[in-house]
Design goal:
This protein is an alpha+beta fold. It is built from twelve helices and 14 strands. Helix 1 crosses helix 2 and helix 7 packs across helix 8.
């Protein structure tokens, strides 16, 4: 009863990969890693960076490992996961009603997954819900539902195909009465080239998933093919218990081809085909550096076992390069708009000079995007800036502080350095005593092996009295806390 019938794996998925033979003709792992490393060095060079500088020396290797980890599903077999994991469960002998192996619905909810978007190579978050109706008086070990879903998530994907592939794999793999897969997916926004990385129209105003593109898709087989059937009603009711409402679910027939924000950068595809050579030829305006970067991304796709000329991937190298260019090292200047801040008034007290700064000013929830220099993956969040200034002095304009945040955010960065640079620039430019708090979500923390979904990182930099005056520091942190609490309500 616990063994699988090999015939259950005879079917094929829509992308032509056989369930019984999910082997991809990949090169030796070490050779593949070196190829990806070389391509990453080309990308860094195109961004005006030195891959030998401290902080970037191991970036090519880290990126290669992350990409191989994030696409390990190409090298995994569904058969290996579910074989031996089917267990006898007879259910009701009378055959009246539904229970256990006799046809009762089983739903595993809230499976947190990450996948790489095939349109732009940026990771997207997935919350997966899988339901199935057992048949043949056998049930599947619950953990296997998650592992099968993860096999297909760890490939270049879009939401609808991911749902279809998980559904088809389980239907063919365990031969139940039916399978349903519901996915909630979130994709980060894709800033347009030349626009501020912290453009308010494109970025979330606080931590969390606000401002992200969302897709809500589903797939069904067997008894779930009838979308108005009773079994779908049971599934929806169980999802509602978790606050999941499918009334606004995307229609399956419409697909999710346009869900990625980068699709506006599509290149023409004639008759649905493109050659491996012309898949990288995207624009006559692309300079040598950008063309080399695009070719490098195509080489990465090939090294991962993908076909860069597959119609869904034709524009992917360009889109990923366009994302990276938002963080190209440049000689941009911080726009201070002619603002001149009065220097702190000094007075003598017991022979020591001190600043007559008795007012605190704060600008909270300044949104930003940046790119982790260790993994070439984005991190995003908000910056809070507090400073002390002399009574009566004009506060620093928010737009100027936004300009400073944008200047340092749109580079290859680490959060600790970003926090320090913002504080030092505000202090040196305006003579202010400054405290900066940066709160951010790092895609590299959730899309790689550790997969710490929901984690966030906070960093603090303090200069002047904030480093010696606990009261001033506490006042500013309280204002940050109050603002965050208000935003959550």
């Amino acid at each position: 009863m616990g063994a699988l019938d090999e015939g259950h794996f005879a079917g094929e998925l829509e992308n032509g990969v056989k369930l019984g033979s999910l082997e991809v003709d990949l090169k030796d792992e070490s050779e593949t890693t070196v190829e990806i490393e070389d391509a990453v060095k080309v990308l860094l060079q195109g961004l005006g960076e030195d891959s030998n500088r401290e902080g970037l020396k191991k970036t090519p290797l880290r990126v290669a490992k992350a990409l191989r980890e994030g696409t390990r599903g190409y090298r995994q077999k569904v058969k290996d996961i579910v074989q031996g994991a089917l267990f006898p469960e007879a259910g009701l002998d009378s055959g009246v009603g539904q229970a256990g192996g006799a046809g009762g619905l089983v739903v595993v909810r809230d499976l947190e997954l990450f996948s790489y978007c095939e349109s732009c190579l940026l990771p997207f978050q997935v919350q997966c819900h899988v339901g199935y109706v057992p048949s043949g008086q056998r049930v599947l070990g619950l953990s296997k539902l998650s592992r099968v879903a993860d096999v297909f998530a760890k490939r270049l994907q879009d939401p609808q195909r991911l749902a279809d592939e998980v559904c088809s794999a389980l239907q063919n793999g365990i031969n139940p009465a039916g399978v349903a897969v519901v996915l909630q997916c979130w994709h980060i926004q894709f800033p347009e080239v030349g626009r501020s990385c912290c453009d308010q129209s494109h970025q979330p105003t606080k931590m969390g998933m606000q401002g992200w593109v969302r897709a809500f898709v589903y797939s069904g087989s067997g008894v779930f093919e009838n979308e108005k059937g009773d079994v779908w009603g049971d599934l929806l009711a169980l999802l509602k218990l978790r606050g999941i409402n499918m009334e606004k679910t995307q229609n399956r027939t419409s697909g999710s081809l346009c869900w990625c924000p980068s699709r506006s950068l599509d290149v023409p595809v004639f008759n649905g085909h493109a050659s491996a050579r012309n898949c990288c030829k995207v624009s006559s305006k692309a300079g040598p550096s950008q063309s080399a970067m695009i070719s490098a991304v195509a080489a990465i796709l090939h090294s991962l076992g993908e076909d860069p000329s597959r119609k869904e991937l034709v524009g992917t190298p360009l889109r990923f390069v366009q994302w990276l260019i938002n963080f190209k090292k440049s000689n941009l200047e911080i726009n201070l708009n002619g603002f001149t801040s009065a220097k702190p008034t000094m007075h003598q007290e017991n022979g020591n000079a001190s600043c007559n700064q008795d007012e605190m000013q704060s600008e909270l929830n300044i949104p930003f995007w940046s790119q982790c220099e260790h993994h070439l993956l984005p991190f995003h969040g908000v910056v809070h800036i507090g400073y002390l200034h002399a009574s009566g002095d004009r506060p620093i304009e928010r737009s100027i502080l936004e300009s400073i945040v944008h200047f340092y955010g749109c580079k290859l960065q680490v959060q600790e350095r970003l926090t320090r640079q913002i504080a030092e620039t505000v202090s040196s430019a305006f003579g202010a005593e400054v405290m900066v708090v940066v709160e951010a979500n790092h895609i590299c923390m959730v899309s790689r092996g550790i997969e710490k979904v929901g984690s966030s990182t906070a960093t603090i930099a303090v200069l002047g009295r904030f480093s010696t005056d606990p009261t001033a520091k506490a006042m500013f942190l309280h204002s940050v806390s109050e603002s965050s609490a208000s935003a959550e309500r």
